[in-house]
Amino acid sequence: RHYYFDDNVAIKLSKRELQCLNLYLKGLSTSQIATLMSVKKVTADTFMRNVKHKFNCSSKPELFEKLWNYKVLNTNGLFD
Predict the structure, then answer these.
(1) How far is residue 26's CA from residue 36's CA, in Å, rounded to a whole number?
(2) Which of 15, 26, 45, 47 makes the best surface tag, with the fewest CB within 10 Å?
(3) Share of the chain above pLDDT 90, in %
């Protein structure tokens, strides 16, 4: 899925990155995410590192704020 922002830059998230991001924004740790996604913790950490890199963020609050401001999230916290 691609996300387009004001400067027309496309950010593409893989299906697994998007799944990981959804769980992460719901407050799950990467250890919990790894268990739910049936992957190793290092893999979940890599998914989140890739997502943060793609959105040019270094922290969870910064990532959440960007996603909210770009209207990637709706009011109940789930992706549209």
Answers:
(1) 13
(2) 15
(3) 41
